[in-house]
Amino acid sequence: MTHLQKLVCALVVLVPLFALAQDTDRSRSALLTLFADNTSAAISPQDLRDGFVSGSCYGGLYTDDNTATTQAVSSTPALFTVWEGDFPENCVDGDYSNDKVTLPNYAADWKLDFSASFYSDATAEYQFHARLDGVERSECGTIRKINTTGASGIGSASFTCIVSAAALDEVTIYVEVDTGTPNLTPYEVDLSVVRVDF
Q1: Does 58-197 carry CATH code 2.60.120.40?
Q2: Confidence band of 189 (pLDDT split at 50, 70, 90)
Q3: Which residue from 141, 133, 115, 140 is spatially nearest to 172, judged by alpha carbons?
Q4: Per-residue confidence (pLDDT) for residue 46, from 0 to 100
Q5: Which sequence spans correspond to the domains of the chain?
Q6: Does residue 12 register a pLDDT over 50?
Q7: Distance between CA 26 and CA 19 in Å, rounded?
Q8: Bridge partners of 160?
Q9: Which of 97, 138, 171, 173 is 20 to 30 A (C-alpha) from 87?
Q10: The whole model's pTM is what?
Q11: Which phi and psi angles does 108 have, rounded to 5°?
Q12: Which residues lie below 8 Å from residue 94, measured CB to CB, with a gap of 6+?
């Protein structure tokens, strides 16, 4: 087999691979336009695949069995930074190393579920709130009073809310306390983000 024949054979194998399109998560308006009608057989198999992958969108962050890492808190809200990993995700970008979940490039409504089990070295009221692009969402928050210090005084707090978010909004959690500057030990913490409409 000549070099030219080998090259032709390689191209026959590789070109279809390069031609494969990737599935694309699309907004509701884009899907409605895509599936507007099929009188001219304009809906391709790839269009259908895009419709399937656009049906679910989720992700989040978590901390699991943490006893070593603490976070100093005060009456000034501060970004919660004790995350250890990302949940499985589709179309959102969980980034625990940067303490955020980035939403896709279109506006949509999202359900945020947050829960935390934690303890501290001082008695106080601890507040957690979600923020979208740095703006606090007052409807997405929770307060827990800790009356006993140390691991024996572990408490829990949670919230669920539905928010309308803009394209590429970043979801973060902020924490504050009503008095003092205690050290918070987050033991189990979860933040899940699920699209409910788009």
Answers
A1: yes
A2: very high
A3: 133
A4: 76
A5: 3-53, 58-197
A6: no
A7: 20
A8: 113
A9: 138
A10: 0.79
A11: -165, 170
A12: 59, 60, 61, 86, 87, 101
